[in-house]
Structures are given as C-alpha cells and as structure tokens.
Amino acid sequence: YAATLDPKCKPTAVVKLAGSEPAVKLTPRQNPIPAGVDPLAPDADLPPVPQYTAWSEQLERSPVFEQLEAIFQDRIAYIDGAMGTMIQRYKLEEHDFRGDRYANHSHELKGNNDVLVLTRPDVIEAIHLQYLEAGADIIETNTFNGTSISQADYELQAKEEVYAINSAAAKLAKAAAAKFMANNPSAGQRFVAGAIGPTNKTLSVSPSVENPAFRGITYDEVVTAYYEQAVGLYEGGVDLFLVETIFDTLNAKAAIDALEKFFADRKVRIPVMISGTIVDNSGRTLSGQTNEAFWNSVSHAKPFAVGLNCALGATDMKKYIANLSACADCYVFCYPNAGLPNAMGGYDQKGPAMAEEIRPFCEEGLVNAIGGCCGTSPEHIAAIKAMASAYPARKRHGVEPLMRISGLEPLNYQPNAADMRSTFLNIGERCNVAGSIMFKKAIINNDYDTALSIALKQVQHGAHVLDINMDDGLIDGLNAMTKFVNLCVSDPEISRVPFMIDSSKIHIVEAGLKCSQGKCIVNSISLKEGEEAFLAHAAAVKRFGAAVVVMAFDEQGQAAGYADKVRICQRAYKLLVEKVGFNPQDIIFDPNILTIGTGLPEHNNYAVDFIRATREIKRVCPGAKISGGVSNIAFSFRGNEAVRRAFHSAFLYHACKAGMDMGIVNAAQVIEDKYEKIDKELLEFVEDVLLNRCENATERMLEYAATLDPKCKPTAVVKKGGATGGGGGGKKEESWRDLAVEKRLEYALIKGIDEFAVVDTEEARASGKYTKPLQVIEGPLMDGMNVVGDLFGAGKMFLPQVIKSARVMKKAVAHLIPFIEEEKRLSGQVGESSNAGVFLIATVKGDVHDIGKNIVGVVLGCNNFKVIDLGVMCPWETILDRAVAEKADIIGLSGLITPSLDEMVTVAKKMEERGMKVPLLIGGATTSKMHTAVKIAPAYSGPVVHVLDASRSVPVAQAFVDKNLAQRQEFIDDINEQYAELREEFFAGLEDRKYLTLADAQKKALKVDWKDPVNAPVRPKLLGNKTLLDFPIEQVTDYIDWNPFFQVWQLRGRYPNRGYPKIFNDPTVGPEAKKLFEEAQAMLADFIKHKRVRLNAVLGLYPANAVQDDIEVYADESRAEVKGKLFGLRQQAEKDSAEPYYCISDFVAPKDSGLVDYVGMFACSAGHGLEEVIAKYKEAGDDYSYIMAEALADRLAEAFAEKLHALVRCEYWGYAPDEKMSVDDMLKVKYQGIRPAPGYPSQPDHTEKRMMWQLMDADKASGITLTDSLAMFPAASVSGLYFGGKCSQYFAVGKITHEQVAEYAMRKKMDLKDAERWLATMLNYEP
Q1: What mean pLDDT value characterizes the chain?
Q2: What is the C-alpha to C-alpha distance for residues 108 and 114, in angstroms, rounded to an integer?
Q3: Which candidate, 228, 400, 1188, 1312, has a CA 20 to 30 Å from the CA of 1151?
Q4: Would residue 849 show up in a list of annotated catalytic residues for this protein?
Q5: Are residues 473 and 444 in contact, defined by beta-carbon separation less than 8 angstroms?
Q6: Distances from the Cα of 413 to the Cαs of 200, 253, 400, in angstroms?
Q7: Which entry of 300, 849, 1168, 1205 is annotated as an active-site residue?
Q8: Looking at residue 895, what is its pLDDT?
Q9: Helix or strand holding residue 535 (H, E)
Q10: Is 472 one of the annotated active-site residues of the chain?
C-alpha cells in the first residue's frame, strides 16, 4: 500500500502516485436535457421592441443658435485675432493698467490685460472695431484671464472685481459690435463670444514631483471660478461662450460643468464653443491627451462647435483639425498662430502668407470658422477672409453611434456582432478592494506604490478599462479614491486607458470623476432606492459626461431570473433616455452575474438566465451595452484554479455570443484561457453546470474537480498525483531586466519605472566602472535623462512622462547622496553643501505663466539642485537681491509672453551693472537660442545660455556647477562661440501629500525628557494677571522693527543697501527713506509728548499641565481647579524626516509627570487714542499723516509685544534673568521661549482668543475687545501665548484631517460646522 503513495504527502491529505489507482468513477448524469435542445435559445414569441420618446431639453434656447447655424451652414465664419498682440502695439505702462480705479492697488498690474476693459476701455474698443472692420463675425471679450484664479496673481481675485472685469468686457464688446452694425447696416449680424481661458492652474498634473497625487487647486474651486466668470459675461450681454486654449481637458470639463450649472440656474442656454490646444507635434495636449480623446471627453457638452487654437501655426495644425473634423458631429473651427515664433519671440508671418497656409483647410472642407491666435492682427483676419470667401463651409455630419470613452487615448468601442468575443472589453478587476486582497492591503497600508504597480500590470496585460473601487469599511473611500485616481492620472502608461469609477456611494463616484480628464464609466447606479434617487444619480453622472453601468436592482431587490433582469433594465433604459437624455450608447447594463454550482437548485439556471437576458435586453434597449463581474460566476469553486478559470472562459464564450460587450475580469487570464484551448474533458463538466444540462451537474463537477491539482491551468490540466504543471522557467515578463545596468537605468528613466531605481543604481555604483558615486549621476543617469530630453523635444514623450522620469532620477540620486557625503567626509570636505548647486528661478515681471518654470524646478530638484522658486511677476530687484542673499549658483528666467523678452534683457543689464558673474539661463515659450544670443547675451558679460526645455536644463546647470573649472570654462567658451556665430548669422541676414492618523501623529509627538534639569519648569515670579496701562512709549521705541514700516511705503533699498538702516545709503530710495524716517520720528515724538496714543496691555502667568493635545490652566498650584483649557492642534502631514509632529501642548509638562508647569498669555495695544488722531488728519484732508499714524501704531504694537516678552523672560516669569541680547538678535528670535498667536501657524484657531480673554479679563483690564470675527480692536493690537521651556519652538500645524477636526470640535464642545469654518484654511478636505 505504501508503494502507491506520494512519499512527501501528509497522512491527513494522502496523494496517490499516478497509475496506482484506477480512474475515478463519476456519477452518471441525472435527467439530462434532451439532445438538440439549446438552453440558451430565445423565446419563440418575443414582444416588439418598444418605441421610446425622444428626450427634449426644457431650457429655453437663445435665438443666437439659429443665427449662428445659418452662417456656419451657409459660409465659413470669421473669428477675430489676437488681443495681446494688438495691446502690445499701444505700449501701455503701469498707469494705464491702474487707471483711477486701481491707483492705490497693492500689486503691480502691468501685464494684466483684462483690467484694461475698466482702465483703458478706449484701447479695447478700438481693437474690437478694427477686427470687425477686417471682417470678423465673432469677436471675443478681453477676458482670457478673467477668472478669480488667474486674477489672484494680481490680487484682484475678489468676486466683485471678477464680475466687474467680465461684465465690463462683455458690454464693451457688445457696444463695439453695435457701433459697427449701425455704421455698416448691410454687413449682417456680429456676435460677441465670452472668452473663458484655461486659468494658470492644471487639474491633471501635480506641481510636486515628490507628491504626484497632489493638485495645486481642486475641481470644485475651478468650477466656482468659471461660474463666477460666466455670470459677469452673461449679464454683460455675450451671445455665446468660448472655452479656449484648453491644455488640460479636466479644466475644460470643469468649465463645462460650471456652464451647465449656470444654464440650469438661468433657465436658458446660449451656444458654447470649445477649443483645445495641441502643444507640439506629438499631437497631444499638455496634460497628454490626443485630440480625439479630448473630443470624447468634452462631447457630452454638445458644443455648438469644437476646435483648436494656439501653440501651432496653420501648417502644423492641419492634420489635427482634419482628425477633429472627422470625429466631431458638431461644427469645427480653428484659429492658429501666425506661424511659429521667430528667433526674437515675435511672429513674422504676414496675413497673405498665413491665409495661404490655411487654404488647404478650406479646400478640403475641414472648417466652419477660422480666426487667428498669437501674432495675428486685423490684417491677418482680412487676408484670411479674402482667401476663404471663395470656399464653402464644412458640411456638418453625423458619426457612427458608438460608445466613445477615453483616457489619454480614445477608446471607440465598435462591437463585432459576428464575433463579440473578439471585441470584448476587458475591465481590469485588480484595483478593486473587493476583488483583490493584495490591492486592498496596499490601500489600507497607504502603500500606493504597490497599488499603482497593480494598476500598471493590468494595463500591460491587456485591460482596456481600469476598474477602481475603494468601498470598504476600513478605508476612507473618498480620500482613497481621490488620491489613487490622481496618482493613476499622473502615470501616462496607466492613464492611457479609460477608468471605471466604481462605488455604491455617489459622492465617492463624483470624487473620482473630478480627478479624471478622460471620459470614464461609472459603476454603478440602480433603481434600488426608487426612481427619484436613480434619476438624480444619473443626472450627476451625465454632468461629468461619463458612461454608466446600471445594476439590475429595483425597489424589490436584485434581479435573479430572466424576466426580472429584462424588466428592470428596460425600465431603467426608458428613464435614462426619456427623462435624463442619456446617450443610449453610454448605457451599460449589469444584469447580475450570480454564482452557480452552489448546491441550491434555485441557483442552477443563473448563468442561462443571464445569457438569455443579455440577448433580450440588447434587443429591447437599442444601443445599450452589457457588462458584469465575471468572477462571480465561479465563486463556489474558488481555490481550484483550473475549474474557476474554465468557468470564466466558457461563460464569456456563451455570453459574448449572446451580445455581452465587456466585463470585469482578470485581463491576463481571460486572454490566456481561450475557450478553444480549455481542456475538453474539463469543459464538458463546466458546461453541464453553466448551461444547467442535468440535475446533478454540480455534484459531478465537484467529483471531477477533486481529481485535479488545484493550482493547474484550465488549458494544461494536471490530475492529482501527476507531474506538477506550470514548472520550469517561464518567459520573463520584463526582458529589459536582462540588459546591461546602464541600459536598464536608461530604460527605467524613459519609461518612468522607479521599482528598480535603487537596485540598479547600487549595481552601477558597486560595479567598479565608476570610481566615484557622482560619476554614476554624471554617467548613466544623465545619459538616460539626455535621451528623455531628446524624446521630449522630438514630441515622442510628453509632460507626464518627463515628470515620471524626474521621479526615477530623484530616487536614484537619493540613494547616492549618502555615498557622496561619505566621500566628502573622508576627503576632508565636511560641512560642504550636499546639493549640486543653488538654482534660483523666476517668471519675470509682467508675466504670470509658470507651468514651464515649475517643471524646470521639479526636474532640477530631482537632480540634487536646491531650487529657489520666486514665483511669477518678479521684478529684477527681487531676483537679483535674492540671488545674492541665497548665494545662487545659477539664475533662471522664464516667460511666455513676448514682453517678457524685454524684461529678460533688463535683468541681464542690471546683473551687469551690479558686476555679477552668476550664469543666466533663459527659457520659456517665446524665448529662443537666437534671441538669447542677439539680445540677452550682449547685455551681460557673465555666462548666458538658452535652454530649450526642462530636460535640457539639467546638463546645462550641471556644467555650470562643474567643480572642474577648466571643463566648466570650456563649456562657457563653447556657448560663447556658438552665440557669436548666431549673432553674425543674424546680422548678416537681418530680417504649463500623505497624512498620519491623529493617533499615529500623537505617537510621534515631541518627546521631552522632563527629568532632565534643562527642561525643569521655572516657577514664575508673578502668578496671575498683571495690567500695564499707559506704558511709556519711550521704553518701547528701541524695540521697533523698521523694515516693515518702509515696506508699507514701498521703499526698498537695493543690495547692498537693503533693510534698515542701510536703506538710507541707497542711491535711489535712500533720500526719500531718510526723509520719511525723520517725519516718522517727529510724529513719534509728538505721540510721546502729547500722549496721542496709549499703550495698554494685560498679561497672565498660570500653573498648567498638558493633557494629550490640550493644556489645562489651573486656578492655583494645587492644580485642584481647572480654570480653563487651551486646545491644541497637531501636525498630521507626513514628513520625510524623523522630525516630531508638533502641537503646542508638547512644550508643557504632562499632567501625569507630576511636575507643575506654567503657561502665559498677553494682549497689548498701541491703538487707544489712534482713532482721534486719524480723524483729525482725515478732517484736514491729510492722507499722508493718517497713513503714517496707522503705520506707526502698528509698529508700536509689535514693539510693545517684543518689550513685554523681554519683561516676561527676565522679570515676571524670570526664566532667563541674565538675558543680554541686542534688539537685532531679539528681532531674529534668538531668545528662549516663544509667543505664538491664535489664528497663526502654531495654533490656527482664532476662537482660542475667547479663553485667553476670559482668563485675563482682557476687555476690562486693557480695553482691548474682540469682534464677532475675533479680530482685536483697536486694530493696532497684538496677542499671544507664552511658552518658556527650552524645548519650545515655532512650527506650522499645516493641513489637518477630518478626523482631527471632529475630535477637536468634540473636545471643545463646539459644533463641527463651526470648527470647520474657523479652520477652513487648514482642512485637507472639502467640508
């Protein structure tokens, strides 16, 4: 008997050797269905296909629809040209942009063209009229940057300012059109389009390479901004909206969402035209979409017309317009640039030449309307009209009714009715927490790298659509969905396919849709909660343009049988097409794939019912699709791979023959397990169960399954006791891993694969080929980045890929840093900076565009440069002063608009005047190598080089910080020679974060050793409150920090004369600063002599102890009575370092330590009496003096706070009695202890002032009161807490989670909504 057994098997699970037992005897079939009977055949008498009523919109349509239709059908229409190009001709200065309205505005406004509708309407009207005279049928309002988002760069984001700009712009354009039509009555109707630009933010790309899930703005914030703009434009009278220059389709979807809400609110609809921007010859938007994917994403808006503008000249744009013309069923338009920018950043192409480039558009019937973008003028529009008038307009056509969805690329589902299995859409199931234990574990553990790798593998293994589901009790579904979709969107390989946003909770569905620029599928909605909820959910899905999966549920429950499946789906279809207006092609039914083989007879026909219902639902619901979760079918056989996978394959075979279109599947397995390859013996048992061919099919299947190796494959069945299947070395999935390490690094950089970055970098470092770790960076890593740069420049890689490449680079460099540091230590270079160099970058004055600049910063940061980004609108003084202060190794200047080129020349000249020698890098859309060589380099004797793109910036920057000075000089000499040649050539031919739970953050709080004498609390000499009234001003004046005073008056010295008192030596502002200071001293002397203002204060010092994140304040040192409680907020944003997660309570000894600690607080003011002073000056019309008085009072209040703190440290508390410190060091906070203020970073809750005022009786004691918004009155007042321990330090709480806010509100006995309102700026979520 022993000879028959596998010698390695266990006594509790005996395995017989092959051939030692006779074949297993299986139970015969019981009551098999008769031969020739097809259990899947349709009923003989089917009801007729219902007639459905077409949905009709209830909104009133503007008469402009018919007027524009008539023109677009009859002839080619003409749109105006560039507004910016024309404005530049007027050479406007700062005062033109300010006008009277903004004469005293706090921010420079030059370059903010939109405000000219308010400050120089004559200029804008004149430009409108010139375009109308040139033949434009449609003129655009001057509101390209008219959202609060874009206007924030000029501090004009207030709702009333945005409204003023947009309504005035619309009225101005309408008035110009009316004037033209009055003067030219035979010219016909002219229209005004409300221009809605893309904003300067992108919803699909993270501004941080370290945190690809982060977004600089939320979808809802963009929707709100667009809605506010639409209100102003509409009330100003625009005829239509033009959403233009879309570089990120998610921004466009937000604009569409805003406009749809606006139309619903106003109960009227006006035409909408949408124009995307292809950024280069890759044929994609900046966010990576092809133009057909872009169309699929926005087509739900049913725009009057769709088109392309900007970035390209007509010749380069033509093939993309041809593609758009073929796939769009609306009108098509374009307005290209006047060719490409010349070497000097301008546009040389004249009107006739541009018209000739556009002629093929007309000859091939591609467009219904044409206009001009950058560099075009009325002359161009006139020339285009003269040429195009001879050609008919494009004939609007229908498109084949298909389900058209998209990721970065379009997926136009075209089923093959003869072989549905060949066109079946595999919906990847592994990014579903209910479908993959590995994925669920990754999400719970916050391991998003693993989660992303699961997503990527599904796409690589053939998933056409990626299902994403976060519905689990252990997961915060909303945040997990948002984060994961943002991460997927940031990966161009994953996001090339459409996403299926899967949740039973509509708010989580919406969260996912708000992150995806593509056209998604939503899974799912149903009639389970009744028709009202069903219609609301369907409308929400339609709002985002998504297709929808409808589960076969109704108020009675889940449809199990054939009749219920058909009935519920047909009812849902009727509601969707008749009441919601859903495109039938975008309706996907899931009639419930239910588990068979359970042993319960009532379950035996589930598969047959599904397959038969599939055929009937598609017949009675024309255009609808069928989907389902295929793994459900064989749930009974989980654990037996061969059987389970065979069920999936056989089920798909029969369901697809009946018309099933798609399913949630293991993409790799369903491709591998073709029906024809399934073991025929296994298949017979499987289909008996699947098709319910006999009563005991399940029992027979179980008997047969027991004979199989549970890990074998259905295409290579292995019986128990036989040879093991699937052994040996299969083909490696990642053959690139066999390449040399240098080539592996290059491949990883190009593909953005960071999984092996550390392993391969270490292999290169340890290989012996590179004598120093730095050589690995300079060698294979930079070689790979150079390839990335070449591919990016050639349009073969696009932005998200470059950002991923940078991420790989950063990971590799981070691995090498410790080795580089150790090498420095051994060579005696201890203390040197470990970064490659300091790179200061800025967008120059007058320019607000910074996407390209941000990318450069990210890429250089990943290559170990310390990047100092000064932002946008940077004056040359700021750039150069900061460069000196930060000891910058390189200065980078960026700009998009043409005037930026002149500002770059100014910066170069000022660098020369200062005698600087820092290398200057030039980049941006309008810049060029030629312009840099001809205009910028001659203005500066230091190194100047033009950088084409972000990837190319790295080798250039590294060359400038090369420690080999001879090699560095050789690089500079080579650049100088190139630029000298370019100049000769020119003159010769002259003509775009994680959070810890509160519990985890508390575990990582600051750990203070309270037993250490250095941390022992010091008992204050004064306990309780002390009031200081009419404190002598002369005792405070030495503590005044004068630098903010001069900033109020916008007086700033230039290096080396920055700051007080050096500002007096500045040749430009010095004399005025001196005069201002003397007048301030005179007023200050008057304050002192006549006691114009009074300094009042109250302070309190109390026994206290920390209790977790709060501080109990006691009535006395017995600690028996809690007199009050100060509540703290703790940092939660995840940190890369081991730094603690701070809360103010960390600086006070815990109650359970047994130590009595102390806390203090104060409120002080220099504002008592100030109102009378100001009133006197105002009455005399002396604006200068009242502003001076306010500025001085503010300085005195801050100085008083500084003086009080010194008194507390040395006398009242006395923990630093021997402190000897200059005022300068005091202002630099070199003393022990801190005084954080409620409402500021360390405790951002202003409501904490209420407890302070209660404890100090501050109103009565000092006369300082709190307003309803908890502002202090008088305004020149300061308040805060005192912490005296050496462990105390300033910190910023940063963003906090809903968990902490809810817990904080509960501790304070505060309504959660109130807490969220007071902490609004700190929330990491939308309340």
Answers
A1: 90
A2: 14
A3: 1312
A4: yes
A5: no
A6: 34, 22, 11
A7: 849
A8: 79
A9: helix 531-543
A10: no
